[in-house]
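Z., the sequence and structure:
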Amino acid sequence: MTFGEAVEVMRNGGKVRLPEWKGYWYKKNGEVYVYLEDGTETNTPWFQQTIWRKDWEVAE
């Protein structure tokens, strides 16, 4: 899916990721957060190189 579609998934309470990621992105309190593989969470800046990718997927 495109980044725009991934944002829509997050707006609806879902989690998204790129295939090589072990964590995922999601929205919390109106901001985008990252859940990292080690279990920590942090808010994230929008990385320019990732928004153009078309292989976003829903994270379970």
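Strands lie at 16-17, 24-28, 31-35, 41-43, 57-58. Residues 3-11 form the longest helix (9 residues).

Let me know what you think.
H.
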